[in-house]
Every structure is written in C-alpha cells, then in structure tokens.
Automatic annotation (TrEMBL):
Listed EC numbers: 4.3.1.19
Quaternary organization: Homotetramer.
The reaction(s) this protein catalyses: L-threonine = 2-oxobutanoate + NH4(+)
Every ACT-like domain range: 329-401, 424-495
Metabolic or biological pathway: Amino-acid biosynthesis; L-isoleucine biosynthesis; 2-oxobutanoate from L-threonine: step 1/1
GO molecular function, one term: pyridoxal phosphate binding
GO BP annotations listed: isoleucine biosynthetic process; L-serine catabolic process; L-threonine catabolic process
Protein name from the UniProt record: L-threonine dehydratase
The organism's place on the tree of life at top rank: Bacteria
Species of origin: Halovibrio variabilis
UniProt family annotation: Belongs to the serine/threonine dehydratase family.
Length: 504
C-alpha cells in the first residue's frame, strides 16, 4: 500500500491549480529555542490553504459523466475553497455544505469562486450527513476532504516539495491533523524515502481524534469536538488516512487553545503572515516537543496549513497569546478595602509589568481584584509571584488555567456596588511602561479611595484605564489640579450614560 501511494503522489496533478510553496526560516524562533526551525508556507496557496492540492487531484480523476452531474463536498472551509477553485477551473458545478461555525471569510471566498454554499449543522459531521442526502437527491459526485486516496496523494505532494527543497538534515516534520489526509500523504512519501525523519502529528486537545484512535487501536468517534480551530474540528480520523499512516507516524502531540494562539503570534513575528489557528497548530506542537524533549541543535519543520481566519477573531487570539506562552499570570487577589491598599499591592508586585487590573467596590471591608501580571515562561516565575503575594498577607487564587475566568469573568468583573456612595470617574491614557501605574497611585492624595479600576495592556504605546475615586468633599474642586500634575491625559466620565446605566 505504501509503494502504491507514493506512486500516486508522484503522479498527482496539482500544479495546474496549486503552486509550489517555499520553506521559510524562522530566525526568531530558532534563536529562542536553539534549534533550526522552518515553516512550510501552505498559507501562500491561491486559496490560502493546502487543500487545493487534494481537491484538484481528485477532480482530475473524475469521468466526464461525473463532471456533468456536478460535485459536492462537506467542509469547514479550506477544502471547500480548494474544491470551488478546482471546479471553476474545470467548468464543473460545485455545491459545498459547510458547518454554521465556518468563519465568514471562508464562506465568502467559496461563493466568490462560483460554488453554491449551504450552511448546515454546528460541526463537520452534520454537514457531511446533509451532503450525502443531496447526493441521493441530485446525483452529485462527492469529493471527500480527506478520506480518499487521491486526496491523500494530492496532499502528499507537500512531502515531495519538502525533501526537494531541503536536502540537508531534517529531524522532524510537524503536521496538523484534522481528518488525516495531510499527515497520511506527507508521512507516506517522507517515510518511503527518508525513514529517519520523524513525522509528528499535532492535534487540538478538544478534537484529538487521531490520538484517540491510536490509543484504542481503531478509529473512534469523539463525543464532542471543540471548534476554536475549526479547520481541524473532526470527530473521527479518516479510514483511508488512518490505515495508511498509523504505522508511519512517530508521535502525536495535543495542544491547547492558548498554545495555538501563541503560535499564531510566533508565525507572524517571523514571517509577517497571519495564520489561522489550525494553520499554526503544527508550530504549537513543535514548540511543545522542544519543551518536552529538551531538543537542541535539531532541524525541525512545521507546516503552516492555512491563513483563512476572520479578522475579528484576531482580538481573541491576541488576548490569549500571552497565556499560551505562559507569559501572563491571571490572579484573583483579596485586599483590604481602605485607602492605600492599591498602592501597597503594587509595591508588593514590584517592577513587574501589570497587564490587567480590574476592580469594583462592593464591600466595605474586603476588595477582590482581577489582575494579570507578566511572568517568565515555564511556571516557576508565576509561582514565585503567588508566593510573594501570599507572604505579603494576601489571599491569592491562581486563575491562569481557568477557562471561565479567561473567557468571561475578565470582562464581567465589576458591576454595581451593593451600597450607595459618591465617586468621581475618570478615563486615563497611561504610557505602557513598568512603574506607570505605581506613579499614578503614588501621586493621588493618600485619603482618596479607589472604588473602580479597569486596565488592560493591549501592546500599544498607551494603555487605557478607567478609574473611580471616592474624593473627600473638600478636595472635589481640586481634582483637576491633582490630575493635571500627574501628567497623563484624562477625561471625566462621571456623567457618561454608559457608566450611569451599568456601574453607578
């Protein structure tokens, strides 16, 4: 079976639609991890994904009768774009059934290439089921996204290019895994010619169907599948890919949402390309492999499989990046509700960069603050921060790995106080540098109590801060003088209707 697959790969017709993509060095990552790290740039395909290879190769195998009836596929997006483009080049009608979770950028790209799009279900399985119903009704030819030997052969041409473009030392290739078509094709060709090269699959931890199949010794169906990396949101590994590559791959690594987000940033910093989360999946696995094995001086290659992501998802990706790199600790800290408590807390934290600070007055004795603090990767530095705070007498709860806290609580902390009181509310622009927050608190009069505070470091030159202050009556006419002396830009928001409606 292996030799027959390699022949199919060598005979695959892909370059009438696809292009040969380069291998980009990753100098920043290479220096950081003391290994030569390379990125195969499938994000540079005409449809911004490797899927054009398998779709077009499968289309070339169809009879004229099959082409006349039209083709159909179920896809989370990238296979859909590949098939739409292939069908357009060949003058064939294409219908694509896509899960409703598919990013709008992928839906519009498929429609722009002339295919009819039907949105059905919340996962790939539901879309695939509906596609089969349409086949029975209209006689379309189904073009599988991964579970087909001709699709696998088309994806396998990536392996051909890798070995031709990089003839020197290559210790491991990291391949993203959804249904398995890509890793099966790459593993077949590379292991046939270079069995010394490790082939390592990388899966999102909430859609790890290959890892589950290997552990069970057979294909299994996951009870549920996470959709953050929708390009690999598959509940069961393909039958054809699994039979081909189960004895060829060397390992499977699973990664978290935060680790994928961090890898998106890494790819951008080294190539200026914005990968989709499933596109950065393999780099996240490569980094985890280095951390787990302590590899040094090796040549490691990952495949950036695609760059089709909605622009509005980038905010969430950026939000989770520092957590993925373990460069931010998210903590819940209890402090005394009295003037000077904020200043004392910041003094305990020291010169570390505070990345987020969220607080709302609720109780006259204790205050619960939500704080993000920049730490060094690895976990030891995070624990050192926690230990230092506890030694300072603070109650601390580590929320860094708490999904509820990261997804929701950070945006909901606050609300209305439980008792009525007067406060002045101002919005500030802080320079993003260590000590800026401490400088602000130091210059406030010592008897002003902070009743509201929200700050988030977004990586810009200036951070935006919302502050509520309980100002003694005698100082009210002098508030502007005090704030002018601090030197930060500010705006009074005490009469802002948003504040009055939701926080007063």
């Amino acid at each position: 079976m292996l030799e027959a697959t390699v022949k199919k790969i060598l005979q695959a017709r892909v370059y009438e639609a696809a292009c040969e993509t380069p291998i980009s060095p990753a100098p920043f990552l290479s220096r950081r991890f003391n290994n030569q790290i390379l990125i195969k740039r499938e994000d540079l395909q005409p449809v911004f994904s490797f899927k054009i290879r398998g779709a077009y190769n499968k289309m070339t195998q169809l009879t004229q009768e099959q082409k006349d009836k039209g083709v159909i596929a179920a896809s989370a997006g990238n296979h859909a774009q590949g098939l739409a483009m292939a069908a357009k080049l060949m003058g064939v009608k294409a219908v694509i059934v896509m899960p409703r979770i598919t990013p709008e950028i992928k839906v519009q790209a498929v429609r722009a290439r002339g295919a009819k799009v039907i949105l059905k279900g919340d996962a790939f399985a539901a879309a695939a089921e509906h596609a089969q119903e349409l086949i029975k009704e209209h006689g379309y030819t189904y073009i599988p996204p991964f579970d087909d030997i001709d699709v696998v052969a088309g994806q396998g041409t990536i392996g051909v290019e890798i070995l031709r473009q990089h003839a020197g030392r290559l210790d491991a290739i990291f391949v993203p895994v959804g249904g398995g078509g890509l890793i099966a094709g790459v593993a077949a060709y590379v292991k046939y010619l270079r069995p010394d090269i490790k082939i390592i699959g990388v899966e999102a931890e909430d859609s790890a169907c290959l890892n589950a199949a290997l552990e069970a010794g057979e294909r299994v169906v996951l009870d549920q599948v996470g959709v953050f990396a929708e390009g690999v949101a598959v509940a069961q590994i393909g039958e054809v890919p699994f039979a081909l590559m189960k004895d060829l791959i060397d390992d499977v690594i699973t990664v978290t949402t935060d680790e994928m987000c961090a890898a998106v940033k890494d790819i951008f910093e080294d190539t200026r390309a914005v990968a989709e989360t499933s596109g950065a999946l393999s780099l996240a696995g490569l980094k985890k492999y280095i951390q787990q094995t302590g590899a040094e001086g090796e040549t490691l290659l990952c495949i950036n499989s695609g760059a089709n992501t909605n622009f509005d998802r980038l905010q969430h990706i950026a939000e989770r990046t520092e957590l993925g790199e373990q460069r931010e600790a998210i903590l819940a800290v209890t402090i005394a509700e009295k003037p000077g408590s904020f200043k004392k807390f910041c003094r305990t934290v020291g010169k570390r960069m505070v990345t987020e600070f969220s607080y709302r007055y609720a109780d006259s004795s204790e205050a619960h603050i939500y704080v993000g603090i920049q730490v060094k990767p690895g976990g030891e530095d995070r624990q050192a921060v926690i230990d230092k705070l506890r030694e300072g007498g603070y109650q601390v709860e580590d929320l860094t790995d708490n999904e509820l806290a990261k997804l929701h609580i950070r945006h909901l902390s606050g609300g209305r106080p439980s008792e009525r009181f007067e406060e002045e509310v101002y919005r500030f622009e802080f320079p993003e540098r260590p000590g800026a927050l401490m400088n602000f608190l130091t210059q406030l009069p010592h008897d002003w109590n902070i009743s509201l505070f929200h700050y988030r470091n977004h990586g810009a030159a200036y951070g935006r801060v919302l502050v509520g202050m309980q100002v003694p009556n005698g100082d009210r006419i002098h508030v502007a003088e005090y704030l002018d002396a601090i030197g930060y830009r500010y705006w009074r928001e005490s009469d802002n209707p948003a504040y009055r409606l939701f926080m007063a």
